[in-house]
Amino acid sequence: IQMTQSPSSLSASVGDRVTLTCRASQTISTYLNWYQQRPGKAPKLLIYAASSLQSGVPSRFSGSGSGTDFALTISSLQPEDFATYYCQQSYSSPITFGQGTRLEIK
Amino acid sequence: EVELVESGGGLIQPGGSLTLSCAPSGFTVNNNYMMWVRQAPGKGLEWVALIYIGGNTYHADSVKGRFTISRDSSKNTVFLQMSSLRADDTAVYYCARSRGTGNNYCNHGVDVWGQGTTVTV
């Protein structure tokens, strides 16, 4: 299953509300996870099962969608949120990741 | 605290072999789905291999026949044996744990990641 994220990069300011999108090449129900990766660091799980917030993740992160179209929304960007975000499907093996959206400071 | 520590990366000639190790703290490899995920320089994430709680293993087509995931319960360690290495295997290799329910090994995401170990071919 191919995962396509858009946009590939996005410039935004602290305090902005941003939405990143992810599309699956076939329906995956809600088997969709989101990760944040800061430069030189390992990915960090933010959202699982499309909309469930991982323990310890700030509530400004939220996920939505089902079927083939999904979104990750950050309600009010903080300086530490500037990173690359990946979606990943767990509907079928092998698990696959999107190519990532790089969120940059405007 | 739950964490994973990888080791074994390095610089290797094409065609060579290398074994990566991954030792968790705070949980046991036997009771969890464990996997390796790699990231080539400047690229995205690619799943490489998985070992189920029951011991079954699966490998990506790109490494099948060359890489082998295994675990040693007595050492509480997961391994990735890599052979016939190629330039396109150059990457940071992450050991990770996934959580799942029912027959799905990852529907609750990959929740613990190691710091990564670099393999340069």
Note the topology.
The complex is a heterodimer of chains A (106) and B (121).
Chain A: E1 3-6, E2 9-12, E3 18-24, E4 32-37, E5 44-48, E6 52-53, E7 61-66, E8 69-74, E9 84-89, E10 96-97, E11 101-105
Parallel strand pairs in A: 2-11
Antiparallel strand pairs in A: 1-3, 3-8, 4-5, 4-9, 5-6, 7-8, 9-10, 9-11
Chain B: E1 3-7, E2 10-11, E3 18-25, E4 33-39, E5 45-51, E6 57-59, E7 67-72, E8 77-82, E9 91-98, E10 110-113, E11 117-120
Parallel strand pairs in B: 2-11
Antiparallel strand pairs in B: 1-3, 3-8, 4-5, 4-9, 5-6, 7-8, 9-10, 9-11
Which sheet architecture does the biggest sheet of chain A show? 7 strands, mixed
The total of beta strands of chain A comes to 11
Range of strand content of chain B:
over 45%
Tertiary shape of chain A: globular
Query: Distance between the terminal alpha carbons of chain A, to the nearest Å?
Result: 33 Å
Q: How far apart, in Å, are the first and last alpha carbons of chain B?
A: 34 Å
Oligomer description: heterodimer
Low-confidence stretches of chain A: none
Q: In angstroms, what is the radius of gyration of chain B?
A: 14 Å
Helical content of chain A stands at under 10%
Work out the helix count of chain A. Answer: 0
User: What fraction of residues of chain A sit in β-strands?
Assistant: over 45%
Order of helices and strands of chain A: EEEEEEEEEEE
Q: Would you tell me the overall average pLDDT of chain B? A: 96
Structural class of chain A: mainly beta
Largest beta-sheet characterization of chain B: 7 strands, mixed
**Helix/strand-derived class of chain B?**
mainly beta
- The poorly predicted ranges of chain B are none
